[in-house]
Amino acid sequence: DNIVTAQALYEGLWMSCAMQSTGQIQCKVYDSLLKLESSLQATRALMVAAILLGLVAIFVAVTGMKCMKCMEDDQVKKMRMAVFGGVMFIIAGLAALVATSWYGNRVARAFYDPFTPVNTRFEFGSALFIGWAAASLALLGGAFLCCSCPRRETSYPPTRGYPKNAPSTGKDYV
Predict the structure, then answer these.
(1) What pLDDT, in 10s, does the model give residues 61-91?
(2) Which sequence ranges are marked TM in the entry (predicted)?
(3) Is residue 21 part of a domain?
């Protein structure tokens, strides 16, 4: 007697979901990798690469932190590890930013396409905003780690401080 209709459709990188009027959500994983559009496959690959590179960057950057006991005998190498971790964070952030922006562009183009049926027009979801925020934080964190770059040694002669005068006894002045 009751008609169950889909109230909302969700589509992501890994599955498509439909929320019904009863409140239940049914999700379906995409059937085949080969049936997917090439842009969706590339977006998936970029996101997986960003996640894996971000995890490796965490471990590299942690070894370069000043509070870690690893490599504490050579501070220059330790700082270089932190900078290398920062560069890896920047690359991971760029990969995530490209992936989320590419998918967002795909959604926007399909939304404004007059040939797309009205019931299959998607809007930006929370995953896109989370992806953009995560990419921004990875870029910002990588930039902060890169700022801890060790300064290069210069060939200038060492600076000489002013000679320290002996404290005056007060008898030197007339």
Answers:
(1) 998 888 877 777 888 888 889 899 999 999 9
(2) 42-62, 82-104, 124-147
(3) no
